[in-house]
Amino acid sequence: MAFYKDESLNELALDRNVAQFISFAPAPKGSLKQRFCRVAGYEPNYVFPTLENAIKVLLTRSVDGSVNIRSFLPDDPRSKEFVYGLTRVDTVLAEMRRLSASGLFLIVNETIDVGDGGVSGVVQSDVIEFAPDDTPRCVEKPGTASLPFTLGMDVLETVYGFRPQLQSVRGERIEFSIHPRPQGWMKTHTLIWEREVGVVGEATAKSSWPNRFSRHIGDKAFGLLIAHKLGLRVPRTTVISRRLAPFVFGSETGSGEVWIRTAPTEPQPGRFTTVKGWIDPFKLLAKEDPSGEFIASVLCQAAVPANYSGAAIAGGDNSVIIEGTEGEGDRFMLGLDLPQKLPDNVFEKVRFTFDKLHELLGPVRFEWVFDGLTTWVVQLHRGGTETITGVLVPGDAYKWTRIEAVLPLEDIRDLVLQVEDGAGLVIVGDIGLTSHIADVVRKAGHPARVERSIAA
Q: Which terminal residue of the chain has fewer beta carbons within 10 Å of its beta carbon, N or C?
């Protein structure tokens, strides 16, 4: 049975936005006959007077002035040659005549830039999966963001400033892309590439990060956005991204002050600047990451009037480790101050937040600030640890390298990176099990213990 890819695309375009295209069938004497088209500003399946006119209009209406040529045979489901990124009418016509001479059917469509800051992906059942800088086939690769449909749509709407034109329909699978600039024949931000009905089975969201999208906007930005969309209290946060227009989420804290926080692509505990008060984010990026390799964005976050601050992690043996200090917690997180005994009401409030996040996401790690009434989440990461009292990372080693906890964090980071495979670490001194020092050691993955001072 013949299957015409352009006919399927024509049916999809009846009520969905698709990339602008014109399709052709091979005709006698090396000519081409137009079949279907969707071009912005023209009626569906408008017939252009000449082949040259059709291609000229399509190139003119394309956002980037570029087209691709897809070729196929109706009795063969596999696609044939694909020609990408043509910008001249004469070049397009020459390629079309060459391909049609072999009896191939052609679809000429506008080139869509997958590197424009948007994402591509798939909706199936109640799951949406997506990644930047890729086609919808990104779902076949590791690192794709995978979220429950409503949560994923809320995240995308906040980041891009519009709600994607997508629906979750049982038994339907939709391949899509979304773009900061309007695209396609309907000139909207959402393009549909393929629709499959009668899909059997249910998809399940993984809801894990780091992933390609969290790296795209910054790991801290992604974690905080997830916390906000799940109903946790997150300070009002403006994300100044390298690749996207600024976006805002969270709640006002009433302090009138701000923190500037760098958001690396992946967690780098304590490596990059966090400072109270406004500083130039562009100078900060130029100074700390001039190549743009490590920091995806800078966050301007409303300060929380801090009664107590600290961090909470899922530890080993199903334990929960909650630590903190009175006032602001930046010195505690850097290992400069030791954790204090928290008042019972503060501990209980933070534990309630932990339990809610754990119920929704599984094991988590987060930094918190308590203002006297409310627990605010100021960083959130997914994943647990095997840390218990005295042991940061369980395991045996053939030798142990001792590192003094009083050293600056960057010196500790450098020393940890020098530890050879099979060796273990002993952190000598008093540290918080949720501090950046502990995070740096855990991230290295070596067996690690804490040798506390006698007075501790």
A: N
Which tops the pLDDT comparison, 337 or 191?
Answer: 191
Return all residues near 451 (Cβ < 8 A) that are at least 6 apart.
Answer: 402, 426, 427, 428, 429
Question: What is the tens place of the pLDDT at every residue in 232-246?
Answer: 999 999 999 999 999
DSSP letter assigned to residue 30 = G
**Per-domain residue ranges for the chain?**
5-110, 119-197, 212-345+364-381, 391-451
Who contacts 78 (Cβ-Cβ below 8 Å, separation ≥6)? none
pLDDT at 323 over 80: yes
| pLDDT of 215 | 96
Please, what is the Cα angle at 136 between 135 and 140, to 5 degrees?
A: 105
Question: Looking at the predicted structure, is the pLDDT value of residue 434 above 80?
Answer: yes
pTM of structure: 0.89
The stretch 179-184 carries a mean pLDDT of 94
Structure tokens of 334?
């850097």
320 to 224, 256, 327, 394: CA distances (angstroms) = 20, 33, 22, 17
Cα–Cα distance between 444 and 395 in angstroms, integer?
13
| Residue with token string 């569906």 | 44
**pLDDT tens-digit map of 345-374:** 999 999 999 999 999 999 999 999 999 999
Domain 391-451 = CATH 3.20.20.70: yes
Checking if the pLDDT of 455 tops 60, the result is: no
d(CA 240, CA 245): 7
Asked if 98 and 84 touch (Cβ cutoff 8 Å), the reply is no
Q: Where are the beta strands (DSSP E) in 73-164?
A: 82-86, 105-110, 119-124, 127-132, 145-148
Tell me the CA distances in angstroms from 326 to 25, 56, 250, 272, one per residue in order. 74, 68, 24, 24
pLDDT band at 456 (very low <50, low <70, confident <90, very high): very low
Which amino acid appears at position 171 of this protein?
G
Supply the DSSP symbol for 127.
E
Structure tokens, 335? 């290992």
Name, in order, each residue with C-beta under 8 angstroms of 82's C-beta and a sequence gap of 6 or more: 68, 69, 70, 71
Locate 297 and state its tokens: 């964005």
Q: What is the dihedral of CA 194, 195, 200, 206, to 10 degrees?
A: 60
